[in-house]
Prior knowledge:
The chain has 191 residues and is α+β, with helices and mostly antiparallel strands. The chain is built from five helices and twelve strands. The protein has a six-stranded mixed β-sheet with strand order 8-7-4-6-5-12. It has a four-stranded antiparallel β-sheet with strand order 2-1-3-9. A two-stranded antiparallel sheet has the order 10-11. The longest helix is centred in the first third of the chain and has 22 residues, at 2-23.
Amino acid sequence: MLDGWIRRGQTRRLRERATRYAVNGWPVAPLVVPRLGRCPCGRACVDPHLAGEPVRDGARAEVVWRERAWEIALLTEGFEVLDLPPEYGALLNHQLKTTCPTAMAPVGRRWWFFLVPGSMEPERVARAGGVLHSASPAAGPGAAGAGTAVGWVVAPGTVLESTGRIRWLVHPYLTRWQPYQRRDAVDQVFL
């Protein structure tokens, strides 16, 4: 009985989160996360993977997450995710403060910054030991070039065995659900 109550609460929270993302223009997709060497999809998976089609509206998110307590993937269609190691992430977070949606994975202390597409060059990100998660038109992972990963990221709030619980440090509602638009001095002069 208690187990069913906990499961229903978890399903409700995931549905509310997925719906909130979709209503605010952040496309989502159901995500399968393997735990303890077993994947809920039944295959021998070790990495999280998408379990369904993209969801771009709140009503559809309600339906998809009512059926099952899927984890949530954020599709990188309206933003890119700059994934940086701690030595760069902490410095950038200090500079941006609350102007950029920012998340962090505790294990490895990877920092995720949600930016307007085209804000960073993938090669520059790769030189810093980072990855740029992008909705690049490339055919798939690896095809996008050095320092780029295509398609989606695990939504903060999700627990992965490799990273622990990914958490928002600056939630998107604090930036009115807008990714960060770079405003460097050079950008200001040459707009």
